[in-house]
Design goal:
Layout: E1 2-5, E2 14-20, E3 23-30, E4 37-41, H1 55-58, E5 63-67, H2 85-98, E6 104-109, H3 112-122, E7 127-133, H4 159-165, H5 178-186, H6 189-205, H7 208-212, E8 219-224, E9 245-249, H8 256-259, H9 261-274
Parallel strand pairs: 4-5, 4-6, 6-7, 7-8, 8-9
Antiparallel strand pairs: 1-2, 2-3, 3-5
Helix pairs in contact: 2-3
Length: about 280
């Protein structure tokens, strides 16, 4: 494992490269290293950087761990790798194991919520609670427009074209930050295509409420009321999970963690305060 610290203060972001059997995983850690662990899993077409607006709001009480899923951000993009949801979850678990984390609350945004769910299925010993942010319960709730792009044209899009392509990821009129545009530009087309097939396959096999209900894990669902990728009303489907809490946020769309980090952090922190795992 290689580690770099760009800042000298106690809560500097620590970046690591974990060498797993099927590829290297890039990890960022913030906050006190002896605080309870909170794992943040990004969605399709972005990276761990998509959580940056929320990180400062979470580090007072958590050891915040962000990973670039295989094929994304600064993680490896090996030929022939599987981007199936269970495989991405297995790598996330292995990353936590390598970091010495024995218990964690796991939060996923959008398709990252499917990985969080699969991680809870695979490692109930590791996951103490689950947070889903604008993650549709099944494909019947999907209202996203198709992204019809050729690999050859991916890098040729202007910033404005990219903003048009991803505009439904935010509420109408939201000014998409340049940092988010840059993340989208950096993704690998083949990984994007593979992930775009893997997530529906996982949801079609069994819905997320069906998967989560028997696990007995505390569940928080946060949903932007103006989501244009998943039916906001579908958030109610998670109420079949015993003890689930569903929080609807007005005035935000598919990405409340980017559109309004403070309002997104409030219910998350209230939830983790009641379901905080022991510090490792």
């Amino acid at each position: 494992m290689t580690v770099s610290n760009d800042k000298s203060h106690a809560e500097a972001t620590q970046e690591s490269t974990l060498r797993l059997d099927d590829g290297e995983i890039h990890v960022c850690q913030d906050g006190p290293r002896d605080a309870p662990a909170l794992l943040l899993i990004h969605g399709t077409a972005v990276s761990a950087r998509s959580w940056e607006p929320m990180v400062p709001l979470l580090t007072e009480s958590h050891r915040v761990i962000r990973i670039d899923l295989l094929g994304c951000g600064r993680s490896a993009k090996p030929d022939g790798a599987s981007y199936a949801v269970p495989d991405q979850a297995r790598r996330a678990a292995e990353a936590l194991d390598r970091l010495g984390v024995e218990h964690a609350v796991v939060a996923g945004h959008s398709s990252g919520g499917t990985v969080a769910t699969a991680l809870a299925e695979q490692r109930p010993d590791l996951v103490t609670a689950v947070v889903l942010i604008n993650t549709g319960p099944d494909m019947a709730a999907c209202i996203a427009k198709e992204v019809a792009l050729r690999a050859a044209s991916w890098a040729d899009l202007t910033d404005e074209q990219i903003r048009q392509v991803i505009s439904d990821g935010f509420h109408p009129g939201y000014e998409i930050p340049q940092a988010f545009v840059d993340q989208f530009r950096d993704i690998d087309f083949h990984v994007f295509a593979a992930t775009s097939q893997a997530v529906p396959a996982y949801l079609d096999e069994r819905s997320l409420p069906e998967r989560l209900a028997p696990l007995g894990k505390p569940l928080l669902v946060i949903f932007g009321e103006e989501d244009r990728r998943w039916l906001p009303s579908s958030a109610a489907d998670y109420r079949v999970v015993p003890g689930a809490t569903v929080t609807m946020l007005s005035g935000v769309g598919h990405s409340p963690n980017i559109e309004d980090p403070p309002r997104t952090a409030l219910p998350l922190l209230a939830f983790t305060a009641n379901h905080t795992p022991p510090a490792d």
